[in-house]
Amino acid sequence: MKRVILAAVAALAMSGAAYADTIKIGVVGPFSGPFALQGKNFKAGIDAYMALNGSKVGDDDIEIIYRDVPQADPAQAKALAQELVVKEGVQYLAGFYFTPDAMAVTPLLTQANVPLVIMNAATSAIVTKSPLVVRTSFTTWQTSTPIAKVAKDAGVSKVISVVSDYGPGVDAENAFKAGFEAAGGQVVEAIRMPLATNDFSPIMQRIKDSGAEGVFAFLPSGPTTLGFVKAFKENGLKDGGIKFFAPGDLTQESDLPALGEAALGIQTTFHYAVSHDSPENKAFVEAAGKAIGNPAELSFPSVGAYDGMHVIYKMIEATGGEQDAAKAVEAVKGLSWTSPRGPVTIDPESRHITQNIYLREVAKADDGTYYNKEIQTFEKQGDPGLAALK
Amino acid sequence: MQTVLSIAIDALAYGMVLFVISIGLSVTMGLMRVVNLAHGAFAMIGGYIASYAARDLGIGYGFAVLLAVFGTVIIAVPIERLLYRRIYGAPELTQVLMTIGITFCIIGIANYVFGPTLKTVPLPGELQGSVDLGFRAIAVHRLFAIVCGLAVAAGLWYAIERTAFGVKLRASVDNAAMAAALGVRTEIVYAVSFAVAVGLAAFGGVVGAELLPVEPYYALRYMVTFLVVVSVGGAGSIPGALIACLLLGAIDTTGRYLMPEFGEFFFYLAVIAIICVFPRGLAGRAKG
Fold first, then answer.
1. What is the sign, positive or negative, of the torsion defined by CA atoms of A184, A185, A189, A193?
2. pLDDT tens digits, one per residue of A296-334
């Protein structure tokens, strides 16, 4: 009799171990409103990863729960993250398009025992706010620093910087200034424009009057970028020989059909171009294009989400599906893999992604569409913004 | 001196684009007494139709503009008959709530049908590129916008001040019951003016598309600016709206050139100052 009970207990224990759990991942992003396209890209990247790698890790099913924060709204982001942790019981938090939203959630992580994988928010400081934050996107410092070297190499020594007056814009301004002055150039003037600028003609006049040979610009993608790039051409600056430098946010693929002719020849540095030539990227673009519906809408947040999922899958493998945030984060420190954007590593110290930054030029393809053509690679770039914080 | 001239040209061009889009709102708010927050949405519909016609169907620019104006009017007339008619003479809050609701519906539909990306209206060869004015280059479509603005101003002024329809319109606005008693069919007058206002919005949306690109949130993004123009100019006054646009365009452009860091500080400072001195706007009429 004793034996039978023992056997029964053992059998129960065994079946318990083999019993498949559902591991929930909470993704917060802008899925409606003016930034819905970016949220759509998150979803496309996640769907693409699960289509290519399956929706199971070991025996555990993976379930994604989406929460919508249409515009930067720290209070709502925090409330939704709390709800995801407490009510839905998610083991991982991910997504986050805006820096303030990600910042608001970092204080929750330790107590909730949940790692946060940031798929976009690009301010350097976020990773310092909690040891449980891992980022798979980029920082504005990381993408804006190499362009300074490009400008200097192009023989430009006097540059005027023009940025939108908000966090990422100021980051870009500082990053470019630091990089350009280190290379021996001079930033003759730094202009910060209000976010709601519609007419850029006066700014173009300022650029002309400053006597700079080149302009460094950063604006949020969308209508403002379109207006700026058009004004640059129409006011005769492009034909006047003034060179245009910017990080790749300005020429993101989903804006290119509208920018078109006006953007032709603009050089930007960024971590990802949809046109990147590698077998990994071909597979990714095909899967993500299918997931998003209209492949022309695909742009950089999708690859951040795709790699974010890769990191989470590795975390789940390492912890065997148990909820142990510290162990999960520890497991991906130093993790290297080949992403659609090229070789990447999670830097063990900062938990930010080390990656290649590419110099690209807007070019016209044979079928009349515009794309970012990669022409130079800056290998293994870390985040210079963290050094600047110290 | 060159710089001053250059800024003056920019101010004129920006002011006229604002005028073309805002004047329709001035007509609905001033003459019809409807706070129409869906005005930006109608301008956006015009932009979408023109973009679709010119870019996807390959129709010529001039025809695309006509299609945009009439297409938008055709969409708007049933909305007027079914929804707007109920709020003529209603308290402002009712009007605001209903028109903002319409705006959100249109944003959602536009997002669903055309997607969230930017749409442009391709310009014909004659309007592309820039002309050299001797001291600077200016885009041809800006000059086109200035001409359109002047033409709209002159045409509207003539229609309201000098034609029989204008007399009926002003009569219906000032005292609808009395006008009706004298044989003016106020319903038709209102419907026609609404159609004209919407048509102007669509026209402005197309002509201004180079400056204010068309995307689903167009409907809300620029609405504040349009409202400011109307309240500074005085609702319903065409010369008032024209002066307001030129003045605000000049202040905004100069402020942006001299001190871009201050953002829209000077713009709103000017608005506050003007409203303090002229509570009904520069050329506003006392309530009839």
1. negative
2. 889 999 999 999 999 999 999 999 888 999 999 999 999
Question: How close, in Å, is residue A178 to chain B by CA atoms?
Answer: 21
What domains lie within chain B, and their CATH numbers? 2-277 (1.10.3470)
Residue A54 to residues A12, A110, A301, A336, B184, Cα–Cα distance (Å):
28, 29, 21, 20, 72
Output the CA–CA distances (angstroms, integers) from residue A146 to A138, A213, A246, B251, in the order listed.
13, 18, 10, 38
Structure tokens of B273? 């100052």
Query: Cβ contact (<8 Å) for B139 and A234?
Result: yes
| Min Cα separation B43/chain A (Å) | 16
Amino acid at B57: L
Mean pLDDT, residues A179-196 = 90
Q: Which long-range contacts (CB under 8 A, 24 or more apart) does A79-84 make?
A: A80/A28, A81/A26, A81/A28, A81/A105, A81/A108, A82/A108, A84/A26, A84/A28
d(CA A344, CA A356): 7
The answer to whether the CB atoms of B264 and A196 lie below 8 A apart is yes
Q: How many C-alpha atoms does B112 have within 13 Å on its Cβ side?
A: 6
CB pair distance less than 8 Å for A37 and B116: yes
Low-confidence ranges of chain B (pLDDT < 50): 288
| 8 Å CB contact of B260 and A192 | yes
**Which of A161, A201, A294 to mutate against chain B (most B CBs within 10 Å)?**
A201
pTM attached to this predicted model = 0.81
**Which chain B residues are closer than 8 Å to A260 by Cβ?**
120
What residue in A sits closest to B15 (Cα-Cα)? A199
Rounded Cα gap, residues A126 and A138, in angstroms = 12
Burial of B209 (0-12, 13-18, 19+ CB in 10 A): buried
Mean pLDDT of the residues in chain A: 89
For residue A3, is pLDDT > 70? no
Mind telling me how many Å the CA of A193 is from chain B's nearest CA?
Answer: 5
